[in-house]
Amino acid sequence: METGEFTRGCGILLSISSLPSSYGIGTMGEAAFRFIDLLTDLKQKYWQVLPIGPTSYGDSPYQPLSSCAGNIYFIDLDKLVADGLLSTDEISCFNWGSDDTEIDYAVLFTNRKKILQKAFERFDINAQEFCDFKKENSSWLGDYSLFMALKNDNLNKNWTEWAQEFKTRQPVALANYQKAHYNEISFWEFCQYEFFKQWTEMKQYADSRGIQIIGDVSFFVGLDSADVWAAPSQFLIDANGKPSVVAAAVPDKFSEAGQIWGNPMYDWKQMETDGFEWWRQRIRIRKKQFDIIRIDHFIGMVKDYTVLSDAESALSGKWVKGPGKKLVDALKTELGDTRIIADDYTGAALLPGVKKLLSKTGWMGTKVLIFAFDGNTANEHLPHNYVNSQVAVYCGTHDNETIVGTFRDKTEYELAYLYQYLNISCKEEIPDALIRAAYASTADLAIIQMQDILKLGNEARMNEPSTVGCNWRWRLGQEELDESRIAWIRNLAAVYRR
Q1: Are 317 and 250 in contact (CB under 8 A)?
Q2: Closest Cα to residue 320, out of 425, 372, 247?
Q3: In angstroms, rounded to a whole number, what is the distance separating the alpha carbons of residues 183 and 187?
Q4: With contact defined as beta carbons under 8 Å apart, do 335 and 257 qualify?
Q5: Do the beta carbons of residue 66 and residue 55 sit within 8 Å?
Q6: Which H or E run includes 260?
Q7: Is the dihedral of CA 310, 51, 457, 491 positive or negative?
Q8: How far apart are CA 84 and CA 385, in angstroms?
Q9: What is the pLDDT of residues 151-207, one digit of tens each?
Q10: Nearest 5°: CA angle at 23, between 19 and 26?
Q11: What's the pLDDT at 251?
């Protein structure tokens, strides 16, 4: 395969968190390796995951505590047992939740750090590999680990509520804190060491099985993050950390009322002064972990929709100009051979600007089939309207209802065009027909959510925008795909040269 090219193929979208495990959430352990085997058996080439950064309030991977760190929940505990850092009895003493089909984040928040601290007590912090890891990641690891130690000390409060000397990063105060809390800071470094070590092992296994990992990079970061605390000049916030404006979304297919995301906005002019080094660093880290990077909310490079930080409605916002090709060019200096999928879906009014920038990048665009059937035969998401093969086609994304959920309450009149287009006659046929349409399309990549392959309803929905407390929880059972389903998917991949 030549540099930057995609091999025509298919893949499955499944968050690491959704893998089965005995400890409350999916990890980079045995289940991840078995899922890679399953992908191979299904004749898939790609595994797409959601962002892998550490999560905070609301549990959204798109509001990470760090743009470079990994989620400590994904560290496999059985591997720590194998390394002599834990015992199975110690792990079993903790509650990991009562429902294998749903993640209990409150339980994880309470217990995951405790069990990892037990492992840390037996870890040799003078080990050469650990020292090398700290040195290689010094550009972000120190700030992140210090941030997490301080956050823990402050009862998990937002950093804007910390004591002034820590909130404003006064050098003497930070130096004294680092000296007094060396062990706690080392613990957070240890967690990242284990995450990156386990990720590398999983990635190497995927490579050996011919599976390429598509990783998602969130466009924004959370206000309460190591990124904003460590580099406040990169964001539009005041001296106390209060943002003047925050990221939002206009009404669209995801939310009729729009959305207030709450992420602080970047100070693009400031970022440009050093060639967007902050962005280049996060890409530098992620390209080592992923074969392909999906950039979420690509529209943000063109225009950003913002509202005042105290706004009650997304309808009061305004558009501001993004960095455009300047940021694209800066990222390309870091990307090398790493391929990019741009989440370029947007409303008609902004479509020309987004498509224009996308054409200049050479990156792959995105189509979503559940958006295709509005009765307009010129709809860009309909397969017959794809102008070239450099497209990643999805039936739906993590923000959508499942296929079953999307069409469940539609009338026969509303579904008439879809039935005709897909050559089917009833709702029960829609999931398989949509998957077949994705596979049959000219798109280089066809990526299907695991929930849609299993034909699950909205009980398996990953995220409902503008809601908090019930998202990012769905988990895959141990034995979900029967042999007939496996054979069907495998055959589709063969029939459509995927």
Answers
A1: yes
A2: 247
A3: 6
A4: no
A5: no
A6: strand 259-264
A7: positive
A8: 56
A9: 999 999 999 999 999 999 999 999 999 999 999 999 999 999 999 999 999 999 999
A10: 20
A11: 77
